Amino acid sequence: MKILVIEDEQALLESILAYFTGEGNICEHASDFAAANEKISLYSYDCILLDLGLPGGEGLELLTKIKQLKKRDGVLIISARHSLDDKLAGLDLGADDYLVKPFHLSELKARVSAIVRRKNFDGNNIILFNEITVDVSAMKITVKGNQVMLTKKEFDLLVYFLSNRNKVVTKNAMAEHLWGDEMDMSDDFDFIYTHVKNLRKKLLEAGSADYLHSVYGIGYKFGDI
Amino acid sequence: MKLSCRYNRANILTSIVVLIITGIIYYVVIHFILTEKLDRDLAVEENEINQYVNTFHKLPLPASYLDQQISYKALNGTVSEREFLNTIYFNPKERENEPGRSLITVVHLDSKTIEVTITKSRVESEDLIRIILLITLGITVVLLLSLLLINRFVLNRLWRPFYSILNGMKSFEVTRMETIEHEPTKIDEFNELNKSVNAMAKRVRQDYKELKSFTDNASHEMMTPLAVINSKLDSLLQTESFTAQQGSLLEDIYYATGRLSRLHQSLLLLAKIENNLIPDFQHIELKEMIEAKSRQFQELLEKDGLVLTEKLVPIEIKMSRYLADILLNNLFSNAVRHNVSGGHIHIKLDEQALTISNSGKSSHLQTKIFDRFSKSVDSEGLGLGLAITKQICNLYGFRIDYHEESGEHVFTVYFTD
Question: Which residues cross the membrane (chain B) (predicted)?
Answer without folding.
Answer: 12-34, 128-150
